[in-house]
User: Fold these one by one.
Assistant:
Number 1:
Amino acid sequence: MANSPQAKKRIRRNARRTDVNTARVSRIRTFIKAVETAISGGKKADAEKALKDAQPEIARGVAKGVMHKNTAARKMSRLSKRVNALG
């Protein structure tokens, strides 16, 4: 158990950051799921719009440190490839 005031403050701060980061990751997943739903529906216009909305959100996740940049690049690349494959 933390005894020093600094360690106690660190625990409080970590708990706040965990909540914020969890919300960010959840938001990113929601945007990705919207793209995947549009792709499975076969609607290219909706999928392109959803992808356009998801890309800045994924990039923001990288900037905020909740997602690795290569992971984000891979996800964006795979989603783009699937959207472009829609006829």
Number 2:
Amino acid sequence: MDALLQELPVHQSLARVFASVGQDGFWRALVDTLRLLVPVDNALVAVMKAGQIPQLLIDFDSKGSAAEQEELADYTAGMYLLDPFYQAASVGISDGLHSLASVAPDQFLHSEYYQSYFRSVVGEDELQFMINLEAGVLGLSLGRSTAFGLAEQGRLLCVRDWVLAAMRRHVQLLPPQGPVADVAVGDLATLLDRFDARLTAREVDTARLILRGFSSKAIAQQLGISPETVKVHRRNLYQKLNVSGHGELFALVLRPHVN
């Protein structure tokens, strides 16, 4: 009984979640409840589908500053193409609670995207509750400036099933929406085609995976070639694009497009 009473705020908050399913206050009630279990710095709800710009439904904790609005505008303008959760949703991911570590490339934390963009927008770490819908993958993102510990992830795993069920039921109760008008900017290969550098297909593939945060060894595994061949492709594409490394490649391909 004592343990149950200690969790009383959670039970009371949970009641508010179920009372608001299908209503405007649902997402706020859900995020507030999850925060009683695990500290979270920011939260965002989005629908992700391959070939389409992610549809940002609700952005919690935004103060509406010009910098925050610009960061979100950058995301929908093209930064989403490097988002590991968008990439996972695009190729297919199961319903569940997914960690950044489970979906990100092996060198993602050292990528320019993570260092110069992700950390300022989301934080050091991210978890997402994700469900598959006809419109795409609906994700509830939880971001934080410090890494989520195993015990914290365990607490969220304990509530995963009812969170996913509540998310799905909420969407089912909403009135039907019209088609999304946003047109995607294309994929990373499309952005690379803007440069008259005559990149080969392999060089384009290599650049795309470098930008996403894959190491040479992981790129070799993805493309079915040797790490030495990857290094050749990397050197050639850097020369053709007149960049000296990953950071300059990121600035050349993504920054002019989103700013």
Number 3:
Amino acid sequence: MKAPRIALLFNANKAFDRDVVAGIASYLRDADVAWDLFLEEDFRLRLAGFEHWQGDGIIADFDDPAVAAVLSRSSVPVVAVGGSYASEAEYPCDVPYVATDNAAIVKLAHQHLAEAGLRRFAMFSQPATGEHRWALERENAFHDLMERDRMEVEIFRGGDTSVAAWNESVRSLICWLHSLPKPIGIIAVTDARARQLLQACAIAGIAVPEQVALVGIDNDPLVRALGRIPLSSVIQGGEQIGAAAARLMDGMLHGVPPAELRLLVPPAGVNAQASSRHQAVNHPQVVLACHFIRQYACQGIRGQQVAAYVGVSRSSLETYFRQELGCSVHDAILRFKLEAAKMGLESGGASMADVAQGCGFSSAQYMHLVFKRELGGTPRAYRSRALGEAEAA
């Protein structure tokens, strides 16, 4: 029997699109379905010629209105994937559409920051373009939440990230950050935008998360690897969306029409990391010290270096830490290194020696001793447990 030819039109340089494609692959494997898949070799979305696609079906990212325009003329079954819309008129007509629930994503990010004790909120969005309609929907969802709670609506779109505009974009972002009341929780519409916020806070000397707590959207491991401070992020559920889209296409290929044209997939949760773990810290030297520790703990810094950065004596800083946080400067450094080590172990890819080195431990043996002393188990046992729980989920 000849395998159906299905085109996947996604830009897999985006975390969401990668997850959707991974979800399609999971469905094909789990359902024992064989398709001949067309994707560009560089995983980019190119529309030229697709109104005349001679295959059997198309699954495509409809966030770009140009895609919807071209595929509206398609003679083969199409399943659309994209962001949800508050208005039914924004959805394509007569095309099955599997959507990430933008309102639920923003609500979850806001709830996460509120549970950390924050009472002021802002959003860092994208420049308004046709391709960023999903960002506007997230803005609208944030606006509705703030209006509901009778709070000021603070949304900053910022500039693009081209070489020519980069310096001005960073400058304007820092100005906006300085203008905000502190402490504040900021929702970035993507992890990429959240990473820009983290960099701007580092440049401006704004402590994360004591003064600005951040949460992104996408749970992109590449973005996390590029940041000095581990980024909290909403997990969109892209793999579930991809699997649902593939299931719809599989049914359509067998003559089964979709039971409904709109399917909203809720977010899977929040990957909570250091960027949103806000603590109410009042002493300015402790705020500065924590900011320095989060950026450089994994480079092997010691308490004396932290005190020198803050500009006070080591003994004075130790007193401030005991009063504010109930721990020593050394304890704070060690806690951050342990959190970084746990995240490295959860990824499953790096060796014990590489995790230890990347987190500022002098050796894998020393990391082993610290884990046993502080957590009651070995790094290897922690990894096995974390990976087992991930597979079970």
Number 4:
Amino acid sequence: MITASAYKGKKVGVFGLARTGVAAVRALEASGAEVLAWDDAPERQAAVGPSAHNLYDADMKTLDAVMLAPGVPLNFPTPHALVVQCREAGTALISDFDFFEAARADMARHKIVAITGTNGKSTTTALIGHVVSECGKPAAVGGNIGRGILSLDPLPEGGVYVFEMSSFQLDLTTGFKADVGILLNITPDHLDRHGSLEGYVAAKQRLFEQQDASGVAVISVDDAHGASMAATYAGRVVPISVEKPVAGGVYVLDGLLTDDMRGDALVVADLRKCAPMLLGSHNWQNAAAAYAAGRSLGLEAETIISAFTSFPGLAHRQETVATIDGVRYINDSKATNVDAASRALKAFENIHWVAGGRPKEKNFTALAPLMTNVKQAYLIGEAADAIAHDVGADVTVTDCRDMEHALECARANASAGDVILLSPACTAFDQFRDFENRGDVFRALVLALEGERS
């Protein structure tokens, strides 16, 4: 685990005891801090043993800091009660990333790459971790993906920590300094937490605000928010694009990855041929970001491209589950918003689309033009009627209620060469525990199907 001598003798509250919170309690205790840990769920309180202490009854003025779980609201829709207590007492609110920053002084020389954006964060994070490892350097991946960062083992000299950071985590973090920060894209998301699109954008921008002047900012300029940020931090930005050439940056046009970081615009790879798990313009964006990060870390271009060819991809992100009787089954359960689903709908043709769940957005009209790639839609969950209303004029729609029925209908209508795509454009919380559970159910149903597999 990660420890920080700066916290020895400190008295620190920890609120929220899921994986991040429990890891924080262990790290603080190992650092010599007195810890008061609490969660509103009684079963989670038991995970921290004698450190459990009801923070609602604590004298906040006696605490040096309170570490909050990412889901605890700071301002919207209203500040959490403990946030109000801390602010009234003048007690610092921190995140596990702030603790990690304090720990860096005790650690072997290393670099940190941090990735944020609305979509593609997890794939890009995993891809960069894979690239670093394949290039022969020690790597550790965590944050909003996989393990909490404080549960990671310290890396030896020359190691690279690769962290996915959500807007929730950035909202809480005040002093974390990534050596390489990456912004992939911004579309409206989590507006209930941030109050507005402007609040959401401001949370993302904190990644670059907190960097030192020597920090590298890899920023996609394919949306207006990214372009604005790139202009703000000009001088230390590596722009990336999948829509146009970008001077001094990295871009992918028609699958050709071009490196212009030194001003010589060299085509270094054809991603259509060398990277089977990185097909489609959204994955080309991920690859451009990973390449820019790798080069910023001093990795050789040839080694980075070689690592792309062996990247296994991630579960629930356009994951090919099976091909049965010539029909390919794709699990894209991670597509919990309209923009993410649009990326999958652009990546395939002859689609039987399984979609729906609990909606994040007010409408699904942005998906209507993509119905030219869809043979039929099979809708489930709370958003079924809304999706049917917004796209139904352009495609045949069947209300299937649940995943099992949707898959049955899709299989009955699909023929060899078609794709059955789960890309819900919604969260899973109406029928499933989370998007992983939804994807696991889809995978299990597919693997139980009979037929000739290839």
